[in-house]
Specification:
The protein has 2 helices and no strands. It is mainly alpha-helical. It comes from Ataeniobius toweri.
C-alpha cells in the first residue's frame, strides 16, 4: 500500500490549516485504502483471465470436434486489456491523491512557519500550560 505521510503539528498552529488537514486526512487515507484494494482485485482478475484464456487454448487444441473458441478467447483478452486500463487509471488517481496529501501537509507546514516567523504564533512548550 502507498504510505500516506502527514506532517504532525503541535497544538496551537494555524487553526484553519490544521482544521483543513484534519478534515482531508481521513478521506485521503480511506480513498487510498480503497484504491489499493481495488488495484489488488484488478490484478487478481487479470490473472484469472489469463488462466482462463490459457485453459481455453488448451481445450481448443485437444478438441476432436472443431469448436471455435477464438471469439471467446478474444473477448477474454479484450476484457483483460480493459482491466489493465482501469488499473492504470487507478494508479494515476492514487498518485494524485498522494501528491494532494503531500501538498496539503506542505502548505500547512509553510503557513505554520510563516505564522511563527511573523510572531503571531509562538510555539508552546508541552510543560507550560
Amino acid at each position: 500500500m502507498a504510505a500516506v505521510t502527514m506532517v504532525e503539528l503541535s497544538s496551537g498552529g494555524d487553526p484553519v490549516a490544521e482544521g483543513l488537514l484534519e478534515l482531508i486526512k481521513p478521506a485521503i487515507q480511506q480513498l487510498d485504502v480503497h484504491v489499493h484494494s481495488v488495484r489488488e482485485s484488478q490484478v487478481e482478475l487479470r490473472e484469472h483471465i489469463d488462466n482462463l484464456a490459457t485453459e481455453l487454448f488448451k481445450i481448443n487444441e485437444h478438441q476432436k470436434v472443431a469448436l471455435d473458441l477464438d471469439p471467446y478467447v478474444k473477448k477474454l483478452l479484450n476484457s483483460r486489456r480493459r482491466v489493465v486500463l482501469v488499473n492504470n487509471i487507478l494508479q494515476n488517481a492514487q498518485e494524485r491523491l498522494r501528491r494532494l496529501n503531500h501538498n496539503v501537509a506542505k502548505e500547512t507546514a509553510r503557513r505554520k512557519t510563516m505564522l511563527e516567523a511573523s510572531g503571531v504564533f509562538t510555539p508552546r512548550s508541552p510543560s507550560r500550560p
